[in-house]
Structure formats: C-alpha cells, structure tokens
Amino acid sequence: MLKQGLQQKILQKLSPLQIQTIKLLELPTLELEQRIKKELEENPVLDEITDSQDAEEEERTKNVSLSEYPADDPTPSYKLYVNNQGKDLKPQYNTFSVKESFHQSLEMQLGYKRLDERTRTIALFVIGSLDDDGYLRRDLDSLSDDISFRLNIETSPQELEKILHIIQEFEPVGIGARNLQECLILQIRAKNRTPSQEIAETILTDYFPEFTKKHYPKIISKMGITQEELKEAVDEIVKLNPRPGGQIDDSYIEQAQQIVPDFILEEKDGELIMSMPKFSVPELRVNKRYADLLMKASGSNNREGKEAASFVKQKLDSAKWFIEAIKQRQNTLQNTMNAIIDFQREYFMEGDETKLKPMVLKNIAEKTGLDISTISRVVNCKYIQTPFGIFPLKYFFSEGLMTERGEEVSTREIKKILAESVDQEDKNKPLTDEELVGVLQGKGYIVARRTVAKYREQLNIPIARLRKEL
User: Fold this and answer.
1) What is the pLDDT of residues 34-80, one digit of tens each?
2) More exposed terminus of the chain, fewer Cβ within 10 Å: N or C?
3) How many angstroms separate the Cα of 260 from the Cα of each of 15, 100, 392?
4) Among 100, 102, 99, which residue's Cα sits nearest to residue 130?
C-alpha cells in the first residue's frame, strides 16, 4: 500500500562568499599568504598592487565597479579593493622554529658508506620509515613486503636486520631502534666502559621490566649489587636520550618551520594594543582591463562573445568574493582576539598564568555575537606574540573549578600548582594522588582524586611509585 504525503525540509545553503570566508578563517598568516598567491595565479581578474605601479592608475583601477557593467549583481567599489598593508610594510616579528626531521642527516651519513646501489636504495627506504623520534616502529617482515611492492626489490628480514645495524651506527646514537629498550642499550654500549655503565647495560638488557617499574630491591637482590652501585647505574641511564631523532644536535642539517604570529600584543602606558601583521599579505584589486573586456563582450551577440562574457563575469564574481572574504576574515579575527584580550585582561597585563580565568569557546562567542564554530576556526592554528612570548590561542582556553570560597578558577591554575607540588615533593617519598588532593585542598582548591589523576596524566607526570628516586 502506497502512502502519499507532503514533507517540508528547511535546508540552509551557504553562499560562495560564506564558503570562501569559512575556508580563509582557518588559515594562519603564512598559509593565507600562500592561498592568496594561488588565487592570483589562477584568477587573471585579481591583481596585486605593487609599489612600482603608477599612483594615478592605482587610484583609477581601485574604483572599478561592476555596477558600471551589465550584471545581475551590482557591486559597490569598496568590495573590489582590499588594503592589507600595515603602517610598517616589513616589520620584524619574533618567530619560533620547530626542528624538522633528522632524515637528511642520516642520508648524508649513508653517503659516506661504501654500499652497492641495491643496499643503498633499501637503506634509504629504511631511513624514510623511521618516525620523528628516530624509531623503526614497523616489524621487518612487513617492511620487506613494502620494499618488494614499492621498490620491486626482493629482500628478507635477515638482510634488513643487517642494514638496520648499519643505520644504528649513525649519529645521534640510538637512532633506528625498534623500542625504548634497544634505543637505550645502543647508547650505553657506545659509552666508555666504566663499572657503573656495565651495570647499567646489564639492567637494561636483563632487568628492563623491573627497571621501568622501579622495582629496585628486586634488581639489587638478583644482581647482588649495593644500593649505591644501583644508584650510579641508574644515574647513567637517566642521562640517555629516549628520543634521539627528536633532539638532533644543531650541528646537523636542519630546516626551520617558522611560525609567524597572527596577532601582536603590546602594552603601552597601561593600555593593551593589539595589531595584526599584514606585511606578507598582498594588497588586492580587480583588474580594470578584464572589467572592460566584460563590458565589450557583453555587447556582442555571437556565441564566442557570450562565452567570453560568461567567463570574465565568473572570474569577476570569484575575485569579488575572495576580496570580501579576506575583509571578513580580518574583521572576524580582530573582533575575536579583542574579545579574548578583554576576557583575559588581567593575565595579559601581567603574564601571570594563575590570572588566567576559565574560558571556553562559548564565552567568546557570546561576547562577539559569532557562532561557536566560527570562534573554533579562528582559534585553530593561530598564534599571538605577547611581551611574555608566543602562544597558540588555544592556550588561553580552559575549563573551570570552584574553590572552597566559591570562586571559579582555571584548570590551568590547578595544573600549575599540581606540577609545582610534584617538583617540591620528597623524591624518596613521592606524593600519591590522594596526598596531592590534600595538598590542593590545603591551598583552598576542591578537587577529586580522579581529577588529580587526570590532570597528572595530562601533565605527563607518572604515578608516585615511578617518581621515586634512590
């Protein structure tokens, strides 16, 4: 039996301008620069205004309006021009660098080895398979299958083992290990053979599970050593680097990924002044020549003329939406950052982390009148330069807890006090989570034990037994 009925649906369709704006909102400054360059390459209607252009021509072209031409969407001239230049076209901003991979260094070291072409090709593949910490996380069986499939080279786990041992001779020591135990053993074996280092190697080789769980009495009993000898051996182990790839020495080839802040905050005469660096974002306009072409082509009745008119109209619309989207991006970023600064004014005046108030996306959405999803896009991958350093915007957002006085405090403040309490504890008798609850309550913070455990894990602080020192 068939049933007939009416169903009404409300569908929200985003305009091209809204779609463009959403995409641009998520981009940090450097990526925005690349996005604009790409748009300039793909859309001949967009122009970048340079210093060498004639001032009179610049003034004439920036006032181009589609309303002069036959079109369904008259556009005022201000929407066809965007000025992204600040007062100082090339200011010097602080950046911070993140060291890239160590793979170039390993490939360079491989070049000094006398290897046949086949072995060298396999070794390069193995080097490319190392993760950012310098470990080979894949088993040799699956790696040999991958090499056979991708390089069309038949190899075996046994051959890969030999090649891996060659790579493990490279600097930094510990590279190419398959787990933490192997990484530490490679490093301890490369040191001078002192009694404490020999004991350390035995511990890492034969008693690694007991060592990681800090079952020191068991190690002392099984090895027949004194507590002092164990302490000296453990001191040798803790000096080793568990992430040899992540902390490559400056003497190796490296490339820096610079993060340019999207906002600059300065304090002048007790006032907070926020600005947005725009030196890398070019000044855009609509190309007058293509606007003229549209007017001429639209007067032609032949098929070629109409196609030309349609193409240029499409590119003009695209240019208009792109320019307007950049404007909206700038305004949205500025309004959002001003709201964050206003909300966290006490922190930004002093830089004291304990002055950070609990703040979630909803707080800023309510202050700006924007949607929470919009605030999320603004906050994502954006950085601000302050007098106290460069911070990701996500740093200023956190949940809140109540004190015994009924005041709301940021979880970041709780975490700071928790970390300080662990730093100051007696390492012979580290504080348990229950004892940390008591410490926090003594300072006026009401926190459950499970909450302390959660924050401790987020701070990468191990449990009390694993923090114990000899």
Assistant:
1) 888 888 888 888 887 665 554 444 444 444 444 444 444 444 544 45
2) N
3) 31, 17, 11
4) 102
